[in-house]
Amino acid sequence: MAAGPDHLFNLRNNFYLGAYQTAINNSEIPNLSPEDAVERDCLVFRSYIALGSYQLVISEIDDAAATSLQAVKLLAMYLSSPANKESTISSLKEWLADSTIGNNAILRLIAGIIFMHEEDYNEALKHTHAGGTMDLHALNVQIFIKMNRSDYAEKQLRVMQQYDEDHTLTQLASAWFNLAVGGSKIQEAYLIFQDFSEKYPMTCLILNGKAVSCMQMGNFDEAETLLLEALNKDAKDPETLANLVVCSLHVGKSSSRYLSQLKLSHPGHVLVKRVSSAEDNFERAVQSIA
Amino acid sequence: MLTKFETKSNRVKGLTFHPKRPWILASLHSGVIQLWDYRMGTLIDRFDEHEGPVRGVHFHNSQPLFVSGGDDYKIKVWNYKTHRCLFTLLGHLDYIRTVQFHHENPWIVSASDDQTIRIWNWQSRTCISVLTGHNHYVMCASFHPKEDLVVSASLDQTVRVWDIGSLRKKTVSPADDLMRFTQMNSDLFGGVDAIVKYVLEGHDRGVNWASFHPTLPLIVSGADDRQVKLWRMNETKAWEVDTLRGHMNNVSSVMFHAKQDIIVSNSEDKSIRVWDATKRTGIQTFRREHDRFWILAVHPEINLLAAGHDNGMIVFKLERERPAFALSGDSLFYAKDRFLRYYEYSTQKDSQVIPIRRPGTPSLNQSPRTLSYSPTENAVLICSDLDGGSYELYIIPKDSVGRSDVVQDAKRGTGGSAVFIARNRFAVLEKSTSQVLVKNLKNEVVKKSSLPIPTDAIFYAGTGNLLCRSEDKVVIFDLQQRLVLGELQTPFVRYVVWSNDMESVALLSKHTIIIASKKLVLQCTLHETIRVKSGAWDDNGVFIYTTLNHIKYCLPNGDSGIIRTLDVPIYITKVSGNTIFCLDRDGKNRAITINATEYVFKLALLRKKYDHVMSMIRNSQLCGQAMIAYLQQKGFPEVALHFVEDERIRFNLALESGNISVAVASATQINDKDLWYRLGVEALRQGNSGIVEFAYQQTKNFERLSFLYLITGNLDKLSKLMKIAEVKNNVMGQFHNALYLGDVKERVKILENAGHLPLAYITASVHGLNDIAERLATELGDNVPSLPEGKTPSLLMPPSPVMCGGDWPLLRVMRGIFEGGLESAGRGGAVDEEEDVEGDWGEELDMVDVDGMENRDIEALLNEEENDEEGGWGVLDDLELPPELDTPKASANARTSVFVTPTQGMPVSQIWSQKSSLAAEQAAAGSFDTAMRLLHRQLGIKNFAPLKSMFLDLYSGSHSYLRALSSSPVVPLAIERGWSESSSPNVRGPPALVFDFSQLEEKLKSGYKATTSGKFTEALRLFLSILHTIPLVVVESRREVDEVKELVTLVKEYVLGLKMELKRRETKDDPVRQQELAAYFTHCNLQAPHLRLALLSAMGVCYKAKNLATAYNFAKRLLETNPVESQAKMARQVVQAAERNMTDETKLNYDFRNPFVICGSTYVPIYRGQKDISCPYCTARFVPGQEGNICTVCDLAVIGADASGLLCSPSQVR
Q1: CB contact under 8 A, B968 and A113
Q2: How far is A87 from chain B (nearest CA, A)?
């Protein structure tokens, strides 16, 4: 186990916990080794991506940058122009096939994320299943959860726990896993988010995590309070809005404002898609029954 | 052994504790008796009158007396207050070994080398008994603490117990003593006052010491045969019980401990030994290098011992008395005896939680030292010195409070110290390697981390952080980042107390308190002369701490002060407002109310909360020189002013704060010249000329006064002053004033009068007062001085002042804050005290072991697919995780080799859809077609348009959204209904639905309300929405199913009625139809108030249309319903009117005598016996012609369709 101080700890933490702006603002860390510097840049650019500043990332990373950064750029390109995603994916595949860079952990991570967006879990897992970094394992957990294979997710989680049980990603991934399997585990997820909220500054991600745990436990009133707090922090956060829609429905309040807000700011959000597909679905069903 | 105090001196032969005060007397071989304060560590006094060694010394238990006996054969009784030897008792014929006061009688017992023991009456100052029998030196003699017994030890190898019962009888009054004095001699030989009761033989060398047990009939003795013997006695005999062997040389002194069941002995072998009195085994030995021990003393009240040796003495205790405790929100966990106990501050309830130690374990200094508690997991870590430092981890079972006596099998481990650093993590210090092991609640090591400094103890420092202590500094170390967050040089820190908000920390050393921020930035340091014991933060950030004898406070800026004194040391656990909660040395919780005014005041001053300061000044009795000095020193003399009565101090403070008016008032009161002078100076500084003038007038300081008038241009007063000077015959003053006034004539006159004729002449002539000059010239005659040539004289006129009179304008900054505020009485003293937010620690987790997770359901569904993939996945299992995680290359090969992606699992919504036969759950699962088919089958619903939004809501409400990794797709999570703490994971419950029955009840109420207030459209909308929601509502019990069904019919009636009512309003031009609809409305099943309104309206409509008979009928029905008076009155009027003329103008299709239902679509009555057809869902009735249409009431179902009935509860399906 490394004994020296972990300079990137805060940066990484901020990134994982969704404090992207804080991560960017505090990224000036002196005396970093070259590897750490690349990792730092990756985290910073990934934060920018998370904030939606795709163009900035695309223009900042030039062709001379390290593979990891190129991979990050690829993600920015993929997310920024859905129209050109075919070309992005093909260059991604090209890189992955290249044996010299194909093993780059960040590249594999980005591949996993992109293929996950494509809902091609098979392809995603092809690159991520071997793990190697906490990020990759966490992504695996997420993919397996998405695939409704919590048994596999659990195995990945075990690996993470073995490596570092107290790592922020391990904790987060256990929260995801706990939420996915539900039942009594939800309380643990809640406590994990609770721990985060006591230890670190509140972020939308933590608040949403808590709120989701509350909703899963049927405690919609508390969830609403938490979500409104999150909305205060960021009025455009898609998950906050989506969860507010759900939460409002359950507490018997009108959800339409949040939904229209979400539709405006994030037309591609799952909830928006679900609602529109449900509308079609409804019409189809009416037709079929008639 | 915990040494509390040590002295260096000549050999100490005798020791005695003061029963109340922290004093000890030590008698020395050099003949000096020293009085020490062992708490402060100071020599208070010395008594030097004996010649040669003083071997025995003893304090009286209530009077300011002590007795001493020495090798000069003298027994001296001293008063330590007056520092005098009161008298000397003579009689012994050889060295005196010990002396002791009796606990109630005025007696002293002494043992001497003359082989006798003597009992003296120190009031009559006579020897009242001589106990003979020993045939060698008597080394020690002492009274029994309760009974009339004396025990003595002698070099004749015996211990003797003497009965002195008869002595007590004979000395009822002092007079007896005098009478008995004559008998002394006869008593000396074979007297009967004191008889030997037992002779204890067993030691085979001379016995040096023997003492009684404080309560039991036991004696312990120590002898030159190096043995300690324990003896027991009863009424008739005494016998040897056991021998304690171990000392390597003569045992010099031995006694029972006052509080514990132990024996303490010391010896010339330079050791003190502690023995278990029941098991009679040695527990501990303390050795010194060079010093032989000569004497022991036990404090009668508190847990202290003292031992004298060749080069001084030591005061010590055997065991730490601080109970280990940990605070958590409103509760305190602490260790007492064998138990972990729990104390709730708000209720002051104290209860036993779990036993933490098996009874009968050797127990010296192995009791818990520290305690750490994790509220969420309800786990306790107890550290003790056992096995050189170890910890025990207990999980407190739920609701076990106060029960079982069985010791839980705690998880144990060794380590310097152990503390919780997170909910389910604790850190254990490995001193040897300076490493910290982070463990989970299963006591498994999760992580190892080496510490940045050699650490000998760790403390909690916020989640995930540790405060590490070394000899001379502390650091805060973040275990995750492996970063030092803060560092501070400190003396050896003993205790660490965090403020409630974890922003500040107090580091307590033996004599120092250091307050630092959470990053260990030093805020202030306090030094105490005596030991600091404990502390806690109050809610305002004031640190309250205790020393051995005080409760004190420390403000954030380092100002400290005494709150109150203490008799015995206490350990503060929590401060809440004016109450200090603490544990005392017996492990009892106590609440002490203190007067917090002083430090709250100072804090308010410090924080510049002046409104608070003012309200405190007005409302409380704050005073005292100390407070005034403090205020002055802190630059708040104007505040101090408000506390002071004494005029002189008031004056000083007023001057200091520049408050002239107060100063004037005080100066007037005192009327002291010096004060006036100082007032004048200050007033001048401020430019307050009025007061300056006043002050000068008061001091009769005319020069200053005239100068003041000059510069302020007050010429009137100046001339007045001149007159005064004239009257007073003050020529100089007069001249000055004249000069200031520019009054030449006057000047000349003054000079003339003073006899300075030449000067007068010159003055007059220079200023052109020729007539006077001439007159003077004549008077002068020849002596006329010559005037200087070639100079033009000019009149010296005082300049006119820039500003005449008046005071200088002043900037009054402080005035606004204090004076202004203080004068406006009663204004806003209310200062918001922040409320103590109590930590809601939530419920305990019912942790299900991950291994035991139930995968049954999903697995069962997936079994088939899974079978053929087992092999492929085995590879991944083998992979586990390569230890070098950072080198992904190692795993690259594995990655490309065999990897088979598992098939996707079944989404929860699909499980829902498969499992459920309830339409709502199908809709939530997104299977709209199934839901619709169900509704069609169950309720005959065909028109789904009104249900669209509900379907969508159900579906959107069925998932929440979790952002996992950044930029990756969001994870939808199925929300399940009926969650409980004990739900097993991986077993899918039904979907949570956005509609529930209670919402409908709410809607029903508002529907009623809208109806009452006549908002029919609104009401109709509400009732319809209820009707539309019910098919998608799910309830749990059968009973609720019935309620739902009831609700359907209830709401249907309203919908029908309201629709007719609205229809009636549309058909204004058809009075007949209007009446009919109004009439039918009254036959809907409505709530009484609504029925009354319906009847009222029907009555009105019919009455207006002159259908009096029908109106009469409505009026009658209305009266039956107990209407309010206004309605009743109207009804009675209608009845009266109708009774006169019982006819109907128009014929209505309405026969109230014949029972009927109303067709939901055509609104015509369907009388009993007529054919009708109904809606399968809402049960509205229709005329047969409507069959096959969509029901106009509920707008959902097909009239007359076949349906199985409403299915809205899983209980119906089971």
Answers
A1: yes
A2: 19
Domain boundaries, chain B: 2-167+193-317, 501-622, 628-700, 998-1066+1151-1212
Over residues B576-631, the pLDDT tens digits come to: 888 899 998 888 888 888 888 888 888 888 887 777 777 777 676 666 667 777 77
| A276 φ, ψ (degrees, to nearest 5) | -70, -40
Pairing of strands B138-143, B116-121: unpaired
Instruction: Return the H-helix or E-strand segment holding A75.
Output: helix A67-80
Chain A CA closest to residue B856:
A151
Q: What is the pLDDT of residue B624?
A: 65
Looking at the predicted structure, is the pLDDT value of residue B402 above 80? no
Contact at 8 Å (CB) between B474 and B487? yes
**Residues from chain A contacting residue B855 (CB–CB below 8 Å):** 150-151
Tell me if A16 is assigned to some domain.
no
Mutate which of B501, B873, B901, B986 to disrupt the A interface (most A C-beta within 10 Å)? B901
Q: Is the pLDDT of residue B862 over 60?
A: no
DSSP assignment of B682-716, as one string? HHHHHT-HHHHHHHHHHHT-HHHHHHHHHHHT-HH
Mean pLDDT score, A249-263? 89
Nearest-CA residue of chain B relative to A197?
Answer: B463
How many structural domains are present in chain A? Answer: 1
Looking at the predicted structure, is the pLDDT value of residue B844 above 60?
Answer: no
CATH number for the domain that contains residue A212: 1.25.40.10
- Two tokens at A24? 């960017």
Average pLDDT of the residues in B1064-1080:
85
Distance, CA of B1063 to CA of B1192 (rounded, Å): 13
Cβ of A165 within 8 Å of Cβ of B989? The answer is: no
- Structural domain contains residue A81: no
A10 touches chain B (CB under 8 A): yes
CA B1009 – CA B1015 distance, rounded (Å) = 9
The stretch B703-709 carries a mean pLDDT of 82
Which chain B residues have a beta carbon less than 8 Å from that of A20? 966
- Work out how many CB contacts closer than 8 A connect A with B: 298
Quick check: A243 contacting B, CB < 8 Å? Answer: yes
- Report which secondary-structure segment, H or E, holds B214: none
Range of the domain at A268: 194-289
Asked if A184's CB is within 8 angstroms of B983's CB, the reply is yes
Domain B501-622: assigned CATH number: 2.120.10.30
Outline where DSSP puts E strands in B586-704. Answer: 589-593
CATH architecture of B2-167+193-317: 7 Propeller (2.130)
**pLDDT, position B894:** 40
On whether any CB of chain B is under 8 Å from the CB of A218, the answer is yes
* Fold (CATH) for B628-700: 1.25.40
| Residue A67: inside a domain | no
- State mean pLDDT over B789-807: 68
Q: Chain A residues with CB inside 8 Å of B948's CB?
A: 279, 282
Whether B863 has a pLDDT exceeding 60, the answer reads: no
In chain B, residues with a C-beta closer than 8 Å to the C-beta of A256 are none
Bridge partners of B469, per DSSP, are B457, B474
A101 in a structural domain: no
